[in-house]
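Quick check before the chapter quiz. The format below is the same one you will see on the exam, so make sure you can read both the input and the output lines.
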Amino acid sequence: MAESSESSTESSDSGRSRNWKLGAVAVVALIGLVAWLATLPRSNNEPTEDERALVERIVQLKNRGIALLENDKFTEADAPLAELAAALPDDPIGPRNLTVCRLLALTEPSTPLEGEARATTVKRAREALESLKATSADSPETAILSARILTAVGDETQAADELLRATKELSENAVLWYELYSVLQYTDDEAKQKIARSALARTAKLKPENLFIAKDWLLVQAQAKDPAIVDTFQTITPLVRPFVEAIQQYTGKDLTAMLAEGEKAAREGDWPLATTTARIVGNILKPEEVVRSDARRIHPHPLAFVMLDFGSAFDARRAAVAEITSQPAAQLKFVSQPVDAALAELKSVTDLTLVDFNSNDRYDIVALTPEEIIVCTREATSEAWRVLLRTALEGEFDRLHAFDLDADATADSDGNTKPADVDLILTGPAGVAVYENQLNPETGQRSLQLRSDTTIAITEPVLDAALVDLDHDGDLDLAASTARSVSLWFYRADFVFVDRSHRSQLPPGDLAADTLVPVDWNEDAEVDLLLISGRNGSGGLLENLRHGRFRWRQFAESANAFADVTSIEIVDADGDATWDLVAAGANGTRLLRTKSSPGNETGFRTTVEIDSAAAARMQLADFNNDGHLDILTAGASDGPTALFAGLNAGRFEPLKAAIDDAPPITSAFDLADLDADGDIDVVGGTMTGLVVLENQGDHEHHWLDVTLQAEQMKGGERHASGRVNHFGVGSVLELKAGTLYQKRIVTDSTTHFGLGSAKQADVLRVLWTNGIPQNLMDPLSDQHVFEKQSLKTSCPYLYTWTGDRFEFFTDLLWASPIGLQHGEGKLAPFRAWEYLKIPGDRLVPRNGRLDLRVTEELWEAAYFDQIRLLAVDHPQDVDVFTNEKVGPAEIARHRIYTPKHKRLPVAATDKFGRDQLPFVSKRDDRYARLYKKKFRQGLIEDHFLELDLGSLDDPQEIVLYLTGWIYPTDTSINVALSQDPTLDGPRPPALHVPDGKGGWREALPFMGFPGGKTKTIVVPVSASLFPKGDYRLRIATTAEIYWDEVFFTVDEQPTPARETELALESADFHDRGFSRIIEHPGDGPERYDYQHVSTSPKWPPMRGFFTRFGDVTELLESTDDRLVVLGAGDELRLSFRAPASDPPEGWTRDYVIHNVGWDKDADLNTVLGRTVEPLPFTGMKSYPPGPDEAPADAAAYRKYLQTWQTRTHSQRRFWTAIRDAEVGGSR
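Here is the expected output.
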């Protein structure tokens, strides 16, 4: 993984030119080799050694070029793609991808192109386009790429002409029509305006379900006074109905009522009202993810046009080479073990799972029969299986799911948590039944208790179900399919589910999906649902739109290969970091390969037949530990069990001999490493009972087992975080060992990886279900992976020059979160300004300047409107503080406080009577921990810090100075807590005083709190609040706050201090990366080492436009709504002019940084957290801004957007980072 210092990220133009020259030489050599090979004789069409080398070279060029394109490295991608195009001049793959590359170099440079550099880029783009037209002139992709290049150089007329010609041949292509509209959308020419309107009308007719098109067409029709707008209002109404409730929660607008009002106005000819309504409806819908998703489909990103597959001529030669040169699969042998009596009884098993049912770190067998649930266990691998428990069924069920629902992990004697046990969810003809796994603490006996209070009201037969965190709030929800509907049930607490299906746009009732597969299909860190109907031969995607909302998207008919499918498995078969499907059923087993591109849904490329024999059930595992998933199929009548070994490039070969001697599996089976020897065994139902097939392969390959536990590690202790379900089900694991890359979805408590010949993996990345990635370098075999206590969102960081280096100081913008929810539908308030003190010894002048660095290193976007630096000179015998609290303006108003006579409490205790005075008597980075029980990240038991201020002589005002930090909940935790009747959200600090009757009363309900990392808040307290002579107080809260220092002053008058604003001399904005984290050994916040920087992508990308790199000084000099927008990995280098003179004698100097801005995290439950837009502005009353709110100077603001907001983050680089990681190789 890349790591560099501050200076090592700069690139050299001369180096790029040299790469192009070398590439040209290589192209000439390769062309000559191709021509020479064409003349070589072949016997039996067998490839020669030279052709094998050439094939390998061409494939490498394609893979490298595409990988560089996906990482936004357009300059570096040019050389291999140009070489590819020259090597295969008749194959469109090279010219197409080269055209995409050069288009992106022209339209998406990190810094603006000017002069000769732009002219050269334009020339190269035109050359690539001409080569593309020579191979595929009539394709819609060629027309679109051509139009975008022409538009980029200002020739909209020719772009429109070419698109018009294309639409005559491809009149049903909606993407072409919209491309034509987008080219002419803002023209002033009346004739062209007419063409644009016609193109949009055609698009709307072809794609009536596309809300992005519908909202634009609605406004165009209103402005044109088109009576047909009534039909558009009626089309939009049912499309938005599932999302109306959520939209109204944070906008206050009833979209259904507005649409009805607009339709009524149009019918009555009230066109001003109809136009106003259409505009407001469009403004409301514009930021919604459902609309943005539709926009990406109708106006794809250029990378959507990248070709992944060669033409048939080259592919035939490549297949021949692969067949001859491929290595055979590692040998496998399964041996049927002697059947224990307990297993022999189980002759009618309808489903089974292998899971640690009784939490003893060994696999048990949980089997479902028509009459009962049977759990079999054994105390050691050498012992016989025995029945642990039997539970009679109340109804007919045929599917079994084992997951922890109630998060019942328990604490051991050391305070660490023991793993939760699994509960059982049954589905089938009787609907859904939930059984709680209960342990009698006195007898140690296990039992299954049917929970009749789950409120899951499904009584008709369930075809399939999936347990997954649908709303990303840290628990497992239920999706269920019947012959008539799909329903979504969201977990609350204590086995209670709530049906929220009405908030989603679900598939038609007759889909009858018999297979549900949870997967993040479109690479946005949100779990989607694949719904496949084998009986109807159809399928599609329930696309996750966040906040528990889904939208159905039918797969194109040409992509459906689902007829009679009974089993679907997710796999990255060819190691391209994109999910593929393996489907098995009556028509055999086949691989459906896919492609993925930014801004475009994952689509199917090709279907490859693996086996034509029927199969009823299928599972995948790496049986021979060679790093490729193998396929086991079984259960088709009395047919044989079949095994197919996975090979590279998504190929499979049958391994008949591996299972010849095993009895055929005729019903359910499951896979696990039962004997803990590092390979996967099989337990399956046969005609004579359950059979155990022990994997007795050659054991030459290595392996890694990964068990996730959603517990945060901090200070040597583990605590449940509440951010992720206990076993991390639904998380994505990616592993790199040498050149071997693997990707898996967590579906069980343990995920098994084969490592091939590598003795150890180089890197393992966990993408938890809340979107947080966690990298483990050099993970050891058989490892438990705990959720790292690390913030995914907080705020941008400030580093200051301390004399010889930049050092972390604090975080910024904590008072201005936008889109943050305190509970479902309850948006947090924000305050756009802050004043933070920087001590003089933490900001040292150099060369007449004061240098600061502002970085964005978390999963969020930061918006800075203004950054000021003030020098504060004051007498040496007083200290200075600002008020760094989070809270409304009336309690956080800026003021310089000058405490001179600091007083310490005479006592400080917590609710348990423990002495906390040693921790709070001075600022020493030792923090008081005031609690024993933690419920969630950021939520702890009700607690307080009690301070005895001692004997005071008739005071009038006491001013408290409290230094500490907060470890917060996040939006997803807040949403989960608001849905949980057993827990309240964190209560912010309140100040309590004695009530004079032996008790306490609340004196200040909200006193503010320190925002983020260690800060000091100032709390003035009127002495009249205290009973006379009793100056004790309590700071009470349930928030996770740690205090470092507490002191106070009594009746002090302000000491004069002098504030001087310092000029901002430069603000350079650029890409940097992520500082190394420095863990705190105790209860303090983590810090960051600026000198060590990782340049690898750390977070899933946000969508939208960020500020372009370069000099942004003018954007930060005043509050004018022209923002500098930072994304993850960005940095602002700020230099302020240092004061010309030293402070007066006897005085000293500190600084205050004044920021105006906002911060929006990408938490999966943040409102509009997936994208940078809409941008905030100073006049907005809420976020998202109301549909009638806008920045004051509309014309200047539009110019700002066009000039500055032009940069996007790569939508693929994060997802391919592990695949493309440069590591040390196998070990």
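If your answer matched, good. The chain has 22 helices and 65 strands.
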